[in-house]
């Protein structure tokens, strides 16, 4: 498994019935008293978050949840709040101290439904004695899961927890940037507009990434502005293998590039490299279903000062309203921190930026959360190409991965 970059934090949900020792387990794992422990069932009333370094996983945030067997109206609300945490989870830990009950079944079904990998921890082995091994076999056969035996009270059995979690965490496969599209000697034309959005004196990360990838592949990288593209195409004397353009000028570039030359956008390349391009293309077609009053979330991976004609906050909303004819509500969520569930759960569509400041693991966690919530999620480049009628052509270089 490829471990996450140091800047990416995994969320680990600790779940189970009341009074099985979830809080004691979490306190022992963290090495601090972060959760209140008592002999009374239902002591934990709200999710408790604690960030730490868990070897060999790296940075994680543990979430201690209220017991999922809480009772009464207040208990029902606590359980609902606990379940909502699952949408953010990268993996789960089911804590128990006895034979499986319908509550354990419920937690495991929730993990499996949301495709959350999990381990089972049988706690209180100091009390259970020989019965602990019997429970281990029972849980392994019932849930086909890895089972660990621990005593939070005596601090036993915790040495292998990090290793076990690292083994079940999903690894993000290595996705090529341009390496599978170009070879040595190929000509790659990069269309880079210089407008108000272009940083003074430098190029943005996706443009630099494409140039470096072309050089690493022994290809020829030719960088032009959109106004010079037609002249270059007519006079270069060499057919390009690939043209990559900024999304905002994709319509003009598509008209200047012959149909037999592959064309895409920097944002689409980024969405494939860091996210789930097939899902983004599938989701973008949900634009046709937007109606008056629907909420569209514009999500950005970084924080920046908006420009007068900001692409995410001004242009895309304007194009969407013009395309759909609907009165839409737009909500902007910016920053590298993971968004709260409450910020996005009412959205009919999420449109994410290219995510150039996020690593693939961080972007895929956002994608997985959107999928679990049943919210279509696409990105800037896919959206712009779709609204300008050139999406099928812009994703053609990836025809084997995406339905064109």
TrEMBL record:
Domain annotation Hydrogen maturase F tetramerization: ranges: 279-397
Pfam families: HydF_dimer (PF18128), HydF_tetramer (PF18133), MMR_HSR1 (PF01926)
Residue intervals of the Hydrogen maturase F dimerization domain: 178-275
Domain G: 12-124
A molecular function (GO) term: GTP binding
SUPFAM superfamilies: P-loop containing nucleoside triphosphate hydrolases
GO cellular component, one term: cytoplasm
GO BP terms: tRNA methylation; tRNA wobble uridine modification
Stored NCBIfam families: GTP_HydF, small_GTP
Protein name stated in the entry: Small GTP-binding protein
Source species of the chain: Thermotoga petrophila (strain ATCC BAA-489 / DSM 13996 / JCM 10882 / RKU-10) (Thermotoga naphthophila)
